[in-house]
Amino acid sequence: MRTPGGARDVLRLAVPALPVLAAEPLYLLVDTAVVGRLGALPLASLAVAAVLFAQVTTQLTFLSYGTTARASRFYGAGRRSAAVTEGVQATWLALAVGVVVIGLGQLLAAPVAGVLAGGDAIADGAVSWLRIALLGAPMVLVTLAGNGWMRGVQDTRRPMYYVLAGNGLSALLCPFLVHGAGTWDGWGLEGSAVANVVAQTVSASLFLAALAVERRRAPAEDPVRLRPDTTVLRAQVTLGRDLVIRSLGFQACFLSATAVAARFGAESVAAHQIVLQLWVFQSLVLDAVAIAAQALVGSALGAAAADPEGTAHARAVAARVTRYGLLLGCVFAVVFAALYPVLPGVFTGDAAVLATVPAAWWFFTALQPIAGVVFALDGVLLGAGDAAFLRTATLLAAVGGFLPLIWLSLLFGWGLAGIWTGLSAFMVVRLLSVGWRARSGRWAVPGEVRA
After folding, report:
1. Rounded distance, CA 389 to CA 385, Å?
2. Tens digit of each residue's pLDDT (9 = 90 or more) over 174-183
3. Whole-number mean pLDDT of the chain?
4. Residue 260 and residue 143: Cα distance in Å, rounded?
């Protein structure tokens, strides 16, 4: 008999989740290439605007992760309609927050872009792009909520199709809307923003349609509830608060690292950017494993309300996923070590930058096994709804590990070695904290909702 939560289940959930995670970065590459043909000024405006707009998804991912944690417990308890209802409530929350984002974004776009851009012409283009792109914010958040409840019911395949459909259509439209065709000159930079809104609207519409299908299929004795439920919304906001604070801790660390690297010169910040983007890339793969862990652990704990073995099953899933993360991290370490002679040269031919890369590269390579375990255990604890602990552990790692070493490296001139020592301390503190928590078993609280 196949072991639930084994390699096959992890792959079944993780493999379709990976294209969803990669879709936005890949689309941004297409968008950058298309806008780049307009010239340096529009591209600079897009860079500023995209960084600002990315904060919407970066800071509000609780709509995915928090919803998965709650929906998966109901699903494990055999209450699919209740799991989908969590998705409905998360969608109401997404729409409400999205409207607020539009309002605040329109008010703050000009002053914030002006601070970041460093020039009126760049800021003007960024604001023009943002004012259009922000109209799609509610749809972005609906998509996050849709991913959340679907992962909770262990369906990562449909979200893959929905997200790729929206981004694929937008990638086809973007060159036409930006550069035009025939006698039409297109909308320039603003066309890129319109293409973004189209992608978000298509994907969100497919997730909303999926909710409608679930409601029709739900049994009459256990319907999917459509009205806003203040009790559920309050619980989702509480969980979301902890995840938002955790995300802000990450942002403070990585923004500080880039700021300090820039003060060591162009070569240092360029080398740091190359290695950091590779870190982001491998994080996508490890995040896919973490998403599988969330769904499987949450489901096991939800089932534990009626099955005494459910908690033991959740711990067994956690142990297996951790081993998979360690193995994957070791594979990444070997691959990146082997590719060192050639991979940095793909990103730059500047001899000074290439000479600086090793100061970060070997930290990055050595951290892969640690990252594999940390990401896996993050997924386990997120699936258990242990967001308050993760919030505290992340802030402790930031304040006690990353940030002091980052700023000391600036003070004493340690360069990239100091910056990546800070990142290493950050990861080690996280490893120790989530490892202790996982071993303690305090996260394994059975029931349809976390008490």
Report:
1. 9
2. 999 999 988 8
3. 89
4. 35
The size of the chain, in residues, is: 451
166-178 in b/e burial notation, b at 16+ Cβ within 10 A? bbebbbebbbebb
Q: Are 290 and 379 in contact (CB under 8 A)?
A: yes
How far out from the chain centre does Cα 288 lie? 10
Identify the residue with better confidence: 421 or 353.
421
The number of beta carbons lying within 10 Å of the beta carbon of residue 430 is 25
Exposed, middle or buried: residue 87 (CB in 10 Å: 0-12, 13-18, 19+)? Answer: buried
Which letter does DSSP use for residue 218 in this model? S
Using CA atoms, how far residue 140 sits from 144, 155, 170, 220, in Å, is: 6, 19, 14, 31
- Angle between the N-to-C axes of helices 415-440 and 403-412, in degrees from 0 to 180, rounded to the nearest 10: 160
Query: In the structure encoding, which two tokens stand for residue 14, read together?
Result: 């993780």
Count of Cβ atoms closer than 10 Å to residue 25 Cβ: 12
pLDDT at 451 over 60: no
Q: What is the CA radius of gyration of the chain?
A: 22
Q: How far apart are CA 14 and CA 9, in angstroms?
A: 8
Q: Which pairs from 88-92 meet CB under 8 Å and 24+ separation?
A: 88/211, 88/224, 88/225, 88/226, 89/228, 89/229, 89/232, 89/233, 89/236, 90/63, 90/66, 90/145, 90/148, 90/149, 90/236, 91/142, 91/145, 91/146, 91/207, 91/208, 91/211, 92/228, 92/233
Token digits of residue 424 = 């290493």
Measure CA of the first residue to CA of the last residue in the chain; give whole Å.
33
CA distances from 209 to 146, 149, 170, 203 (A): 10, 14, 20, 10
pLDDT at 4: 58
Q: What token pair was written down for 19? A: 């294209």
Does residue 2 have a pLDDT over 70? no
Which residues in 344-397 belong to E strands, given as ranges?
none
